[in-house]
Amino acid sequence: MFSELPALPEDPILGISKAFKKDQRAQKIDLGVGVFRTPEGLTPVMQAVRKAQARIVESETTKVYTPTTGAPGFTDAVLKLVFGADSEALSAERCAAIQTPGGCGALRVGAELLKRTSARRIVSGAPTWANHTPLFGAAGYALEMIPYYDAAASAIDFNAYLAAVKKLGPQDVLLLHGPCHNPTGADLSRAQIDAVFDAAKERGFLPFIDCAYIGFVEDLDADAYIVREAARRLPEALITFSCSKNFGLYRERTGALILVGETAERADALRSQAINVARGNYSMPPAHGGLIVAEILGSAELEALWREELAAMAATVRGNRQLLVDAASAVGLGNRLSYIAEQRGMFSLLPMTEESVTAAKERHGVYIVGAGRINLCGVHEGNAEYLAAALKDVMGQ
Ligand code: LMR
User: Fold this and answer.
1) Is residue 77 predicted with pLDDT exceeding 60?
2) Cys bridge to 242: 104, 129, 255, 259, which one at CB 3.0-4.6 A?
3) Separation of CA 378 and ligand 1 centre (Å)
4) Alpha carbon distance 397, 392 (integer Å)
5) Which CATH number do you get for residue 260?
6) Strands, DSSP E only, in 190-301?
7) Which residue CA neighbors atom 9 of ligand 1 most closely?
8) Tens digit of each residue's pLDDT (9 = 90 or more) over 312-337
9) 241 and 104 part of one domain
């Protein structure tokens, strides 16, 4: 039976870490998988997480199953964080959530839930995160692409994007990125988000907003604009929330699927559907990460510490952007990479081809995803110059 199953190539993002580890060269730079890193290349456990974890280990009395909605307190805390304590949608109980195994779990449960509705298509601006296509494909949706980012101009082609968005209809789902677009780092402005939601109102399509980096621009509440506006202005939305990056809980697989319905009854019904999808798949999410998040957000002291640490990570990434831009102009790349300083979050796309990505790896030990996505967390004072020189070599004049 298994003879028909060929070995598959490595994952385009996760495979980079493996290749990087194998590389024996002393001078190498990992700009691959989206994790925060210190200049020493470490991804430390946040202090707030350490403290919360210690409290949990001390007080936990059982490992009995949690409900399919997740660790006690998790979803309430996440909803309050995402929408803000004074959200009208929250007080009207139009927002429900279940904890999921990471943001991926939330996307998959959301997609399977959509399969139970009249949703015909899921549409995304191009390019999008490499895993969106297989993930939605596994749920039965061939992700359809519309124009978003103009690589030649290193900017969003909003006219082309909005024109395509305005053609969507009530059986369509528009996949949107929360803050820190992956892979481009080019986020919609507030005015552009408003225009997309005007179109959603007019045309009746459903926004499915994938939020893996809330808090990574600079301010958590400002970063939540897109989801708060969706809940305030639209009758329905699906939202994913990942705790991988902002809580540094990558391996704990902690996330949430947030369901916004027109009424409290609809939100309740949606939650029961999501529970049913999850039960038929993994039954319930792993509890540990959810307990940590609930502990942090349930303690004023830990939440303040966490917000401080998150803001510091975001500031580091912003600083790394500037480091690369300065180093690029110092090695003679002129303004070619200056757009990077304006973009947001961990990623930007370099003007590269697959050949130049391969050359960067082979000639300089610089590991870049796909056709030019870099994780700015891999840049620091000690390697910015080397990196800029390597990029100049492979990108040409
Ligand atoms: C990334 O885009 O690098 C991260 O979201 C990690 C992943 O799972 O791909």
Assistant:
1) yes
2) 255
3) 14
4) 7
5) 3.40.640.10
6) 206-211, 237-242, 254-260
7) 13
8) 999 999 999 999 999 999 999 999 99
9) yes
How far away, in angstroms, is 31 Cα from ligand 1 center?
Answer: 12
279 in a structural domain: yes
Residue 2 belongs to a domain: no
**Are 117 and 139 within 8 A, CB to CB?**
no
Identify which has the larger pLDDT, 40 or 379. Answer: 379
Residues 373 and 336 both lie in one domain: yes
pLDDT of residue 396: 76
Q: Residue 226: how many CA atoms within 13 Å on its side-chain side?
A: 27
Residue 4 located in a structural domain: no
- Closest to 213 in 3D by CA, of 193, 195, 240, 188: 240
Say if residue 215 is in the same domain as residue 77: yes
CA 130 to ligand 1 centroid distance, Å: 8
Omega before residue 127 within 30° of 0, cis: yes
The atom number, within ligand 1, closest to the CA of 183 reads: 2
> Do 142 and 290 belong to one domain?
yes
43 close to ligand 1 (CB < 6 Angstrom): no
DSSP code of 174? E
Which residue, of 298, 318, 348, is where some domain finishes? 298
Q: Compute CA distances 358 → 35, 150, 219, 394, whole Å.
A: 22, 22, 36, 9
Confidence check: pLDDT of 397 > 60: no
Per-residue confidence at 307, pLDDT binned at 50, 70, 90? very high
123 and 269 in a common domain: yes
Catalytic residue among 51, 172, 223, 245: 245
Question: What mean pLDDT is predicted for residues 130-136?
Answer: 97
Pair type for strands 254-260 and 237-242: antiparallel
**C-beta 75 within 6 A of ligand 1:** no
- Whole-structure pTM over 0.90, yes or no? yes
- Encode pLDDT of 190-241 as tens digits: 999 999 999 999 999 999 999 999 999 989 999 999 999 999 999 999 999 9
If one counts the domains in the chain, the total is 2
Query: Which residues contact residue 103 at a Cβ distance below 8 angstroms, ignoring those fewer than 6 apart?
Result: 210, 211, 212, 240, 241, 242, 244, 255
- With beta carbons less than 8 A apart as the criterion, state whether 193 and 234 touch: no
Residues 6+ apart with CB under 8 A from 342: none
Range of the domain at 39: 10-43+303-395
